[in-house]
Design brief:
Elements (H helix, E strand, L loop, with lengths): L8 E4 L4 H13 L4 E4 L12 H9 L6 E4 L2 E2 L5 H14 L4 E6 L5 H7 L6 H17 L3 E4 L4 E5 L13 E3 L8
Parallel strand pairs: 1-2, 2-3, 3-5, 4-5, 5-8
Antiparallel strand pairs: 6-7
């Protein structure tokens, strides 16, 4: 397509911390554009918390974009997720991409997080609005189904104006 520049990234799995640092440096050195990680509270393999892992990688990289593919936003309170994502954007110098999704393939992680599995889509929709508002408005107020606050000033604001880009990922069991 005209005007689009190809972009190449790597998704990281579970690694020892020393291996993650070395691998991130190698990925960046080879000219890749981005490093991604998945997110789960419970998974069939041990999984590091995604935003914490990306903050770790932000400290050892300078150029590559860092992103979640995808962050299960419904499992976290949106004001805390907005603050953590803003912090990661600041620490990475504006290189963070907030990939979010509803998840659902592991219902036990919803149970463990106190989130009804059937509400995950509505919670993510609302949480995206909460994040955008907190990143842009000083101070922000919100009145939703799951989240309510008034006069909250999230500081510092993300480096990227309006906050990190939010990419929405998903899949469907529907086949054609």
């Amino acid at each position: 397509m005209k005007g689009l520049t190809p972009s190449f990234g790597v998704t990281l799995g579970i690694q020892a911390p020393e291996s993650l640092r070395a691998l991130a440096g190698r990925i960046e050195g080879l000219g890749y554009d981005s490093i991604w990680t998945g997110d789960h509270v419970q998974f069939y393999n041990p999984t590091l918390e995604s935003l914490t892992m990306l903050a770790h990688l932000a400290a050892v990289t300078r150029r590559v974009r860092l992103g979640t593919a995808v962050y299960l936003l419904a499992l976290r309170h949106p004001t805390i997720a907005a603050k953590t994502a803003a912090t990661l954007d600041v620490l990475s110098g504006g290189r963070f991409v907030f990939g979010v999704g509803v998840g659902g393939e592991f219902p036990k992680e919803f149970e463990a997080s106190g989130v009804p599995h059937a509400e995950r889509g509505r919670r993510v929709d609302e949480a995206i609005e909460v994040c955008r508002r907190l990143w842009a408005e000083p101070p922000a107020s919100f009145e939703g189904r799951f989240t309510r606050f008034s006069g909250v000033a999230l500081e510092p604001k993300p480096v990227q104006p309006g906050g990190p880009p939010i990419w929405i990922g998903g899949r469907s069991g529907v086949t054609t």
